[in-house]
Design a protein that fits this description.
It is a single chain. It is built from two helices and eight strands; from the N terminus they run αβββαβββββ. The chain is mainly beta.
């Protein structure tokens, strides 16, 4: 009996998996955390500090501090984290813009609850001032929060915009 043949050979399948891996959105690197409230059962409530490298702007990293709910619901991933977050983006190396940037673009998005809430980071190009402005906020499926934080990174040269 002859084996069925796939239209994707092993090499093509490996390339597809590799491409899919690099197409995934950027993830946070946790740098540290502090406990803010003791929980008898489950982890404590915390403030976590995370770093996000801008995927289109080499040399820029955004540092975000945000609340992380503990307890039993936090331990099993059912808690909804608070909307409080702070952001500071900094030049951490030579700035290289990999391609023309959209005027406004979501750079990162991370789930804060199992279904309904996300932390978002948006980049806005201020071409006149040769700066990149980053804003963080949280969004719920039905009702977002007006709480936000912004920061700016001066580029010091013209920024290519789509």
């Amino acid at each position: 009996m002859q084996k069925p043949t796939s239209f994707l050979g092993r090499g093509a399948l490996s390339a597809l998996v590799l491409a899919a891996t690099f197409a995934l959105p950027a993830h946070a690197e946790t740098l540290g955390e502090v406990s803010t409230a003791f929980k008898l059962i489950g982890p404590n409530h915390k403030i976590v500090i995370e770093a996000y490298d801008d995927p289109l702007v080499e040399g820029v990293t955004c540092f975000v501090s945000r609340a992380k709910t503990g307890g039993i619901t936090g331990a099993v991933g059912l808690a909804t984290d608070k909307s409080d977050a702070s952001i500071a983006c900094r030049q951490v190396g030579e700035i290289r813009i990999k391609q023309p940037l959209p005027q406004q673009d979501e750079v990162f998005s991370e789930r804060l609850s199992i279904l309904f809430k996300r932390l978002r980071i948006v980049r806005v190009v201020d071409a006149k001032r040769q700066s990149l402005v980053y804003m963080t906020y949280s969004e719920k499926l039905l009702d977002g929060s007006p709480k936000n934080s912004i920061t700016a990174v001066p580029v010091g040269k013209p920024i290519p915009v789509k």
